Amino acid sequence: MSVTGLIRLGDNALVLGQRLSEWCGHAPALEEDIALANIALDLIGQTQLWLGLAGDREGQGRSADTLAFHRDAWDFRNLLLVEQPNRDFAVTMMRQFLFDTWHFEALTALTTHDDADISAIAQKSLKEVTYHRERSTDMVIALGDGTEESHIRMQGALDRLWPYVGEMFTRDDDDLTDMVALRPGFDAHAAATLEAATLTQPASDFAHQGGKTGARHSEHLGHMLATMQSLPRSYPDATW
Amino acid sequence: MVSTQASIEDVWDWLGEVPDPEIPAISLVDLGIIRDITWHGDTLEVTVTPTYSGCPATSVINFEIEAALRDHGIENLSLKRQIAPPWTTDWLSEAGRAKLEAYGIAPPQPAGGPQHCPACKSTAVERISQFGSTPCKAQWRCTDCLEPFDYFKCI
Question: What per-residue confidence (pLDDT) applies to B3?
Fold first, then answer.
């Protein structure tokens, strides 16, 4: 069992949770503001479980908070997709849909993991993520098959984010499950949703890589971490 | 030393008096998050499961459990977090469901939406948002009496 595999799952949840939190107080409608904050809250809760377990297994006394706030960008192991900036609501929702669809498949596979702690966290998270996926699927369909303006923006968001899909299905020895095996489930749900949303899946399968290995994060991650980590780094003994 | 350990039934009753910090109409026992109570020697172990993994009420709940049991004279207490099997709204007690409805929150239904408006009982209801004021609730509205209301999500 690889600690890096646990950190990957925790970092995905943490980085996307932080990104979604940036909408708090800024979303286009109150209900959306509350919904995004709730999803962020679920993801931060899942982060505590994954990074908490990673710290335990690593055995060097690092807590979930230590891992979240006292690592630099090159030590993060999240997918490039989740660190992409919010931009407009279309990009935020499309990013959420693509991530939720992968996350649902990954957690489903991990519910039967041999390690009881991993299986337990996956079972707990899957309930929440099932709800996230339902919502982002509805939202992609409503906005894709919505007004002319919302359709254009959703297609633009899909074209922008599609090059970040491929990295989710790369695999190496640190992964806790075979990520390649998740692709058919992802493709089936994505294709059905995009068709209902009257959106066109990009033809190119070119994939940016380097997030989950830490080899090459995009420039966006460092800026996000600077905001997220400033308080515990400036005041190391602060408690809340 | 002669033990004067409280009975497990009494402890369940005491925790049945502790209100949920977010939805004080129901107790922690009604919510189904108290999974087990056992004595290990002279230490009382209470097993608690979180509703949602990020629910901020979790730490308050642990504090409330501890405060209530200390008030009843429990000295050695251990709170154990258990996340599997994950909490489900199937564990809400029947009494808890009735209290929720009386409080104005529609209880969870396997069909995925409220059975009826908790105020006027009309079945003409529509969803406003999948999320609400706490992680466990969604916002709905009655199209007859026009009241918006919370629905306790079914998970």
Answer: 55
Q: Are strands B105-106 and B125-129 parallel, antiparallel or unpaired?
A: unpaired
DSSP-assigned beta bridge partners for residue B106: B151
- CATH number for the domain that contains residue B26: 3.30.300.130
Residue of A nearest to B112 (CA): A131
Q: What is this model's ipTM? A: 0.90
Strand (E) or helix (H) holding A130: helix A116-144
How far B133 CA sits from the closest chain A CA (Å)?
Answer: 7
Q: Count of domains in chain B? A: 2
Q: How many CA atoms lie within 13 A of B4 on its CB side?
A: 4
- Cβ-defined contact of B139 to A49 (cutoff 8 Å): no
Residue A139 with chain B: CB contacts under 8 Å: none
Residue of B nearest to A130 (CA): B155
Give a yes or no: residue A43 inside a domain: yes
Amino acid present at B53: S
pLDDT at A120: 97
A119 CB near a chain B CB, below 8 Å?
yes
Nearest CA in chain A to B89: A127
- Mean pLDDT over the full length of chain B: 94
From A31, A66, A32, A33, select the one nearest A47 (Cα to Cα): A66
Nearest CA of chain A to the CA of B99: how many Å? 25
| Distance between CA atoms of residues A2 and A212, nearest Å | 13
Residue B136 three-state SS = coil
- What is the percent of chain A with per-residue pLDDT over 70, rounded to a whole number? 100
Q: Which residue has the tokens 């968001």?
A: A157
State the CATH number of the domain containing residue A50.
1.20.1260.10
The yes-or-no verdict on residue A240 having pLDDT over 80 is no
Burial zone of B59 (CB within 10 Å; 0-12 exposed, 13-18 middle, 19+ buried): exposed
CB atoms within 10 A of CB A229: 16
Domain limits for position B141: 104-152
